[in-house]
Structures are given as C-alpha cells and as structure tokens.
Amino acid sequence: MIAFHVKPLRRAVAATFLLLAAGCTGHADPDAQSILKNARMAQTGQERTLAGHLRVQSTGQIIPFTLVLAGDTIRYEFKDEAIVLRLGENGSQLLEAAHGDMQKVSPARYDKPVEGTDITYEDISLKFLYWPQAKIDGSDTADGLNCWKLHLQPGAQPSAYAAVELWVSKRTGAFLEGEGSDSTGKLVKRFKAISGQPDPQGGWMLKKMRIETLGRPEGESITYLEIDK
Known about the structure:
By secondary structure, this protein is mainly beta. It has three helices and 13 strands; from the N terminus they run ααββββββαβββββββ. Strand 5 and strand 6 form a beta hairpin.
C-alpha cells in the first residue's frame, strides 16, 4: 500500500483507509445515496499525512506507504510512484503519477490485481461508493452494530462486480463490511473493517481492513490494509 511492482498498489491503498464519515442523523430514514455520501472515503478540508502498510497474509510481505490527504485529493506514496484519487460530489478519478507525469487509470485496468496481491485498482479506490444505483435492503448488524444494508449496482459504469452488498454503521456512517459478486451472483470479494479510531479532525477513520478474494482454485487470498499512525 513486495518484490512485485508495488507502485500503483501503494498509493491507491490510501483511499481504502480514508473512511472518514459523519454519522447518519435525523428522525427520518435517509435514502441510499445519502448513506453512501456519508460513507465515502474522504472529507474535503482534511490536511494531514499518515504512515501505513500493506500486509499479505500468505507471504508475510509488508509494503510501507505514506498517505497524504489534501482536501479532496488522496495521494498514496510509495518508493517510485504514487496513485492519486481525486474525489468529487458526483464521482472519483483515479490517476497514476510517475516521473512527474500524471495519467488516468483506464477502466480496463480497474479489475487488475495490484502488485501481486488480491487487491485491485477498483478495490483500492472503492469505486462502488460512487455507483449510481443503490437501494436500502433494510437494517442488519455487523459485529453487533446496527447497520444499514445497501444493495449497489454499477449501472453503465465498468466494474468487475455486478453488485456489492454494503453494511454501513447507523451510528458513525462508516462502511463496515462489503461483499462483491460477479455476473453469475457468485461471491468473489469480501471487505471487512477490523478496527477504527476517532479522527482528531472529526468523524471516524478506518485503521485496519481485511480484503479477501474468494473462489480461487488455490484457496482464498487475504491482504490487510493497515494505518500505523
């Protein structure tokens, strides 16, 4: 966020860690897009630098990274390259920076594994939080916490997933769990927030997340995204 090409992976993981969310408040139930808006990965106006790492469970490999938050821009910095996520009200843009050049990450590469891990570009940028089709499937629990359960679909947007089920805390508005399914309805990816912490600048920040890739012949693959401080 190994001896593979760690560059894109390292920067983009920043996005996954930045689940800084304000709680969904009010007496009336919010709509699905309002819940998603609160669960998105950054809040404008945040200015700080964090250290973290990516850990691959099967190999024990650790890739350190620096996460730079600057308003509506998240920059994930590794040794030789960076991935930049620009957040907007109606979507997000994923870019790569190397040798002073900035280029867009094409949709065709969204489902590409990042540097030999089970994390893809789409996973790192949490693109599903910006999908246009979302509905509330009612209330549920995740780790004993009351949550909204959302059913998300990409619409015309390119995606490796046909749908994502999302569990969002009613108390904090933070994204707690997610399950991505393919076009056959098969579960292929699971996201789970392991721990979080209050953000000094307001809201809630994810500290550790587990990402599992399922249905592989060699068995599941697990990668952890962790913020050190």
